[in-house]
Amino acid sequence: MNAIVEIDKAGRIVIPKKMREAMHLTPGTRLRIERHQHQIQIEADAPEPNLEIRDGFAVLVGGPPITVEDVNDSIRQSYEERNQRIMEGSGLE
After folding, report:
1. Domains of the chain with bracketed CATH
2. Distance, CA of 4 to CA of 60 (rounded, Å)
3. Highest-pLDDT range among 2-6, 24-28, 57-61
4. 3-state SS record for the chain
5. What is the pLDDT of residues 42-88, one digit of tens each?
6. Structure confidence at residue 34 as a pLDDT band (50, 70, 90)
7. Which of 14, 40, 55, 61 is the most exposed place for a label (fewest CB within 10 A)?
C-alpha cells in the first residue's frame, strides 16, 4: 500500500485512513521516525506482542492494538509450542 501525502504549514502529514486502519493506528499511537540518508522511515513504536501466563491466564502484552484473529493466532501458536515441548519430553516423536 503506497500513498503520496503533503506536509502542511505546521510540518504535519496525515496518514491515509486505510493505512491507519490496516496498521491499527489510533489517536495517541506513538510512532518512531528515522532518517536514512534521503529517506524517512516511520513505524509504530510498540514492543513485540508476547503471550504471557499471568495468574493462570494467557495474556497478550505489548504490540499494537489487536484483533480477535490476532489473539486466536497467538493462542494457537502458544498451544502448538506447548504441545511440541510435551512431545519432545515424552520421547514419542
Report:
1. 1-45 (2.10.260.10), 50-90 (no CATH)
2. 34
3. 2-6
4. CCCCCCCCCCCCCCCCHHHHHHCCCCCCCCEEEEEECCEEEEEECCCCCEEEEECCEEEEECCCCCCHHHHHHHHHHHHHHHHHHHHHHHCCC
5. 988 877 777 888 899 888 777 666 678 878 888 899 999 999 988 88
6. very high
7. 55
